[in-house]
Amino acid sequence: MDKIGRTLGYIVVVLCFVSSAAVLLPWKQSVWGRALETVSHTYDFPALDKAQAMAMIAEASQRTLAELPNLSMETVYNNFMLVNKFRGSGLFTPYPGLANDPAISAGVWQLGRMNVNALDAMPDRLKIRAAVEQRRKTDPEFLAIDKPTETVWHWDALTAYAADMLPFSTLFALAGLIGLLRLWGLAKFVNVAGCTLSFLLSVTGGAIAQTVKKAEGDKKKKTEHLLQLDLRDSSFLTAGSPPDPNLQFRVSLYEKRWFVETVNTTTPRQKKFYSEVGGGVFLKKTSKTWLLADAFKSENQNNDRSLILGSQFYRFWPRITWAFPVLRYEHGITGPPTNTFAVVANPLLRFVRKGRFGLAPDVNLRKTLGKPRTWTAGLGFKLLPGRQRSNSLEVGLFRNWQNQWSVRARSTINFAF
Questions:
Q1: 240: left (phi > 0), else alpha (psi -120 to 50), else beta?
Q2: Does the bond joining 242 to the residue before it have cis omega, within 30 degrees of 0?
Q3: What crossing angle do the helices spanning 73-85 and 102-120 adopt, rounded to 10°?
Q4: What is the mean pLDDT of residues 366-395?
Q5: What is the pLDDT of residues 264-283, one digit of tens each?
Q6: Which of 8, 95, 131, 371 is the most buried (most CB within 10 A)?
Q7: Where are the beta strands (DSSP E) in 286-356?
Q8: Which residue pairs from 229-232 have beta carbons closer than 8 angstroms and sit at least 24 positions apart in sequence?
Q9: Segment 11-49, tens digit of pLDDT
């Protein structure tokens, strides 16, 4: 086959694979019209003045104090609703003028804090939280506050369209594969397919525990800089559609004696986010041990900010890695000060010495003084492909203190230079 013929053949193969993916996408506006629905939630809120608002807050506070230490679900929900009616920080409120009043803001803040602290101390808090969450999803008054407009995804419309187009997608894909077989021959086709799969696996997933030998133990080419990208996607295994993923993206740059890092977490459908920016210094850095001291500043969607001081510790062996990426103290600097201690343990247990498969337990424990502790624990299955074992791909199952289960996919990419 001459050069022009091979070039045309490759163009046809590329077009076949592109078409295989493109036909599955709903290009028709009518399909998107069925898949996406914008719902408006409205409610006729009564007019209030400052005196009436303060009276409502005082009445709710007295009722809460009278029921302590065990609040009823109705009281917890009514307090929750009242706090949201007068919330500030740029969030939607049916009473914007009152929400910015200092006296009302202080009153709802005290009521909200008392409500949350009482609930956290109750033995049946999980049952009450579940009932409150279920009610807020169907209460028209709360929906008008929390989600004035909401986009509802009808995934059945998208999957039905993709299913209808799947035969055409398969035909295009088969045509592309046949074209590659003709251009390359069977032996080269199998070889390239295997190399491509190995490459895709080698550039996904990983953790610091698998990067040190490449970053520091390569005697032929010494590296002093390590850039690490850590991506995570956690989804709760609860009924309902569409899924509500929690996404985390961490970027870390490690130099010889110091490092900088930023962590960003978001739950898009709930309009929540959390970010950390900071760095630190290496107290010890060898091919077997990393000990770091760090400091961060954090902020979330409610403008709650904290100062964080802590350390990180990693110890590496051929089969076992002890990893404590979080050993910290967090001090809240907005509103009344809060004091939180957090520990995260994430060891790696390889099936064989320097092997590519392993188990990665992950335990996250947090304790805020004056509140019950919170925790998340689970087990991940980790794949470490490639010769250096410097990257990994992980899938794990987790459970938290509220008896909620979630699945997490994790991927880290490392660049040593």
A1: left
A2: yes
A3: 150
A4: 85
A5: 898 877 778 899 999 999 99
A6: 95
A7: 289-300, 305-316, 320-332, 339-345, 348-350
A8: 229/412, 229/413, 229/414, 230/410, 230/411, 230/412, 231/410, 231/411, 231/412, 232/408, 232/409, 232/410, 232/411
A9: 888 888 888 888 888 877 888 788 777 878 788 888 888
Rounded to whole angstroms, how far apart are CA atoms 381 and 399? 15
Q: Are 397 and 377 in contact (CB under 8 A)?
A: no
- DSSP H stretches of helix in 185-209: 186-202
- Token digits of residue 149: 């407009």
The pLDDT of residue 158 is 78
Burial class (CB in 10 A: 0-12, 13-18, 19+), 66: exposed
> Which pLDDT band holds residue 292 (cuts at 50, 70, 90)?
very high
Q: Are 244 and 270 contacting, i.e. CB atoms less than 8 angstroms apart? A: yes
Q: Is the dihedral of CA 61, 63, 69, 73 positive or negative?
A: negative
- Is the CB of residue 345 less than 8 Å from the CB of residue 361? yes
Q: What is the mean pLDDT of residues 279-290?
A: 92
What is the token pair recorded at 132? 């409150």
Q: What is the pLDDT of residues 89-117, one digit of tens each?
A: 445 678 877 877 888 888 888 888 888 88
Domain boundaries, the chain: 3-37+154-184, 42-146, 206-416
Give the Cα separation of 85 and 145 in Å (integer): 7
Cα atoms in the Cβ-side hemisphere of radius 13 Å centred on 321: 34
Helix (H) or strand (E) holding 281: strand 272-285
Determine how β-strand 149-153 pairs with β-strand 305-316: unpaired
What pLDDT is recorded for position 278? 93
Alpha-carbon separation of residue 259 from 231, 251, 274, 285 (angstroms): 19, 11, 21, 12
Report the candidate in 337, 410, 340, 334 with the shortest Cα–Cα distance to residue 374.
340
Find out if CATH 3.40.190.10 is the number for domain 206-416: no
- Radius of gyration, CA atoms only, the chain: 27
Closest CA to 376 of 397, 351, 401: 401
Residue recorded with tokens 């009808």:
154
The helix/strand count (H/E) of the chain reads as: 11, 15
Give the residue carrying structure tokens 């760095």. 279
User: What distance in Å separates the CA atoms of residue 319 and residue 316, rounded to the nearest whole number?
Assistant: 8
pTM of the model: 0.53
